[in-house]
């Protein structure tokens, strides 16, 4: 695999500057994969982007149907097992460090860094898909915690890919700011599959805003205990121009759990009456 990887990354170093420029110039006009006709990604005031039923929708209509950008299995996320693509990377040490510092998704960032090097449509295309999504604010100066966790991530990557030219490319492209940007993108876009406990990142699927009274549910497709696809389907009629929403938390959780998950995970402070279970 080392030789094929070496051939695959020839010339990548020369594209590092162009790639970083791409991160800040993603076209809003690009199509959204898996989005059914009659629905559109639109802006909804202070909530930002969401999905609108342009002409309305009937109960049972599929709004979005697509494969995920990346799937991280639960045991890998916990540092208990190794993903074949990550080889002998010190995932466990990275996970434990970030966990102690309160940083989520480090193993997923590492997996994405590795996947993007072999992405069929090209390295730039992979990160264009990721960075058109919303992300939390990034400070001008990286916090020392991010710098330390970024260093561990790079050490893990170098343990997988030892080619000199590739190491130069990784160092130039996968900077501390890239690390923080990717973590912050996952922080507000990654989803958890209730059945497998996989952490999943979708492109168009990330455009759904939360509602405690959603009109769309997620139907997960699983093969060999791993998420392969998802359909976002309406559970009632949706009015013309109405926003399509999902719930970011399971309906069975208590009110306190709901508030903690929405507040910590997404910065959402719910002020509406909902049917969630009371403590």
Automatic annotation (TrEMBL):
GO terms for cellular component: nucleus. PROSITE patterns: SET (PS50280). It comes from the Eukaryota. Gene3D superfamilies: SET domain (2.170.270.10). InterPro entries: H3K4_H4K5_MeTrfase, SET_dom, SET_dom_sf. Pfam families: SET. Residues 37-249 form the SET domain. This is SET domain-containing protein. It comes from Lotharella oceanica.
């Amino acid at each position: 695999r080392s030789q094929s990887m070496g051939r695959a990354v020839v010339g990548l170093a020369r594209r590092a500057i162009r790639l970083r420029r791409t991160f800040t110039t993603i076209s809003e006009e690009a199509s959204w994969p898996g989005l059914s006709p009659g629905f559109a990604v639109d802006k909804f005031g202070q909530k930002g982007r969401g999905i609108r039923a342009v002409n309305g929708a009937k109960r049972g209509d599929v709004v979005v149907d697509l494969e995920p950008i990346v799937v991280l299995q639960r045991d890998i996320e916990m540092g208990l097992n190794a993903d074949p693509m990550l080889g002998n990377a010190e995932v466990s040490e990275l996970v434990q460090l970030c966990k102690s510092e309160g940083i989520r998704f480090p193993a997923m960032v590492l997996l994405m860094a590795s996947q993007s090097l072999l992405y069929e449509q090209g390295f730039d295309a992979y990160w264009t898909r990721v960075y058109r999504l919303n992300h939390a604010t990034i400070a001008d100066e990286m916090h020392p915690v991010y710098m330390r966790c970024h260093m561990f991530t790079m050490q893990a990557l170098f343990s997988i890919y030892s080619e000199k030219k590739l190491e130069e490319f990784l160092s130039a492209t996968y900077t501390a700011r890239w690390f923080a940007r990717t973590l912050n993108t996952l922080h507000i876009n990654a989803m958890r599959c209730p059945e497998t406990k996989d952490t999943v990142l979708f492109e168009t699927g990330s455009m759904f805003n939360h509602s405690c009274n959603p009109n769309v549910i997620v139907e997960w497709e699983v093969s060999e205990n791993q998420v392969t696809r998802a359909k976002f389907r309406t559970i009632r009629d949706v009015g013309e121009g109405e926003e399509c929403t999902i719930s970011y938390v399971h309906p069975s959780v208590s009110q306190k759990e709901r508030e903690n998950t929405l507040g910590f995970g997404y910065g959402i402070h719910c002020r509406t009456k909902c049917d969630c279970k009371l403590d």
